[in-house]
Amino acid sequence: MSDFLRAEFLSPLPPPPARGKSWREKLFGDARATAITLGLLVAAGLLLPPAVRYLFIDAVWTAPDGALCRAPGAGACWAYVAAKLPFFIYGAYPQPWRVNTAFLLALVLIVWLLRPRAKYKNYALGGFFIGLPVVGFILLHGAPALGLPVVGTNLWGGALVSLIMALAGMTAALPGGVALALGRRSKLPALRWLCVGTIEFVRGAPLIAVLFMANVLLPLFLPPDWAPDRLLRPLFGIALFASAYMAEVVRGGLAAVPLGQSEAAAALGFSRWQGLRLIVLPQALGAVVPGIVNNFVALFKDTTLVAIVGLFDFLHAIETARLDPAWAGPQIALTGYIFAAAFYLGFCLAMSSYARALEGRLAEARR
Question: Do 180 and 290 share a structural domain?
Fold first, then answer.
C-alpha cells in the first residue's frame, strides 16, 4: 500500500445555492400571508379602476384654460400642469437656460459620484464640492463681467429653490454630522459639551423654530454690511438641523464598530486620525446607510417649510399657480397637489432605491 501526499490543495467548493421562495410561497405561504395578499388585491380592485379613470381616461390633457377641467365628469387637469410647468420649476427666474445648465452640471456630477466603478472620482468630488458651488453661483446669481445679468434671489422659486435647499442641506449634513458625532466622543470636555449642547438643542426644537431663528437672529449677530441673503439664512438653519440629526445616526454607527478595529489600526502603525478615516468611519457609515438615507428623505420633504420664512419653493409655487382665475377650480388644484406628490415621491424613491443597492454591495463586500 503506497502513501499519497497531495502537492497542491484544491480550492474550496462554493456553498450550495440557497433556494429562494417561489411567488406562491411568498404570497400564499401561510394563513397570514394569504390574508394580507387577498386584502391587498381587494383594495387594489376597489381603488385602481377609479384612479386610472380619473388620472388618465377622463383627464384633460390639452386646453387653453381651465374651462374644460371644470366640466362635470372631468378628471385630472394635466393641461394646467403643462401650462404652469415653467412656473413650477423656475418661479419668476427670467432665464431658464441658466437653471437648466446648473441642473445638468449637478446631475452629471452626482451620477459620476454614485456610479460604483466610476473612474477619477477625486475629480468628481472636487467638482461637486468646489466647482459646482462656484459655477452654480455664477450661473444662477449672475456675473456681469461674463455677460450674465444679476438675478436677485427674490426671483428664484419653484423646484429651483427646493432642490438647492435639499442638495445643500444633504451636502452639509454628512460632514457636519460626522464632525458633531466625533466631537461628542472627544476627550476634551469643552468640545464634548459644546457638541452635545448643539445636538440636543437643535434636535429638541422643531425645524420651523430653527428656520425662524436662522432668519431673524442670525443677522443680529453679524455686522449690517455682512447681513446674509434671504436664501442663505434658511439654508444655514436647514444645514444645522440636518447635521444635528445626522450626528446621532453617525454616533450609532461609531458605537457599532468594535474597539478591536481601532486597536488593530494602532497595531499596524496608523495614527489615531488615519485609523478613524481609513478603518473606523467607513465601517460606521456603511452600517448606518438606512439611517442616513432616511434623514435625506426627511430633509427633502422638509424643504417645503421654507415657505414659512418667505421663500418660494416648489409646493408654494403650486399653491400660488392655482390662484390664477383662468385655472381656478377644485379639480385643477387637486391635480397640482397630485403632481407635487409625484415630484416628492419620485425623488424619495430614487434615494431609497439607490440606498438598497448600496446596502447590497456593502453586504456582499463584507462576506
Answer: yes
**Alpha carbons 336 and 222: distance in angstroms, whole number:** 40
The grid coordinates of residue 230 equal 434671504
CA dist 8 and 10 (Å) reads 6
CA distance 367 to 357: 16
Cβ neighbours of residue 163 closer than 8 Å, sequence gap 6 or more:
103
Helix (H, G, I), strand (E, B) or coil at 223: coil
Asked if the structure places residue 317 within a domain, the reply is no
Tally the domains of the chain.
2
pLDDT in tens, the chain (367 residues): 556 666 677 777 776 666 667 777 778 878 888 899 899 999 999 999 999 999 999 999 999 988 889 888 888 999 999 999 999 999 999 999 999 999 999 999 999 988 888 888 888 888 998 999 999 999 999 999 999 999 999 999 999 999 999 999 999 999 999 999 999 988 889 999 999 999 999 999 999 999 998 888 888 888 877 778 889 999 999 999 999 999 999 999 999 999 888 888 888 888 888 999 999 999 999 889 999 999 999 999 999 999 999 899 999 999 999 889 999 888 899 999 999 999 999 999 999 999 988 888 877 776 6
Domain that holds residue 37: 28-57
If you write DSSP's letter for every residue of 54-88 in order, what string do you get?
Answer: IIIIS-B---SSSTGGGSTT---BHHHHHHHHHHH
Considering 286, 311, 336, which residue would you say is the last residue of a domain? 311
Specify whether 163 is located in the same domain as 47: no
Is 8 within a domain? Answer: no
| Whole-Å CA distances, 357 to 82, 253, 353, 360 | 34, 19, 6, 5
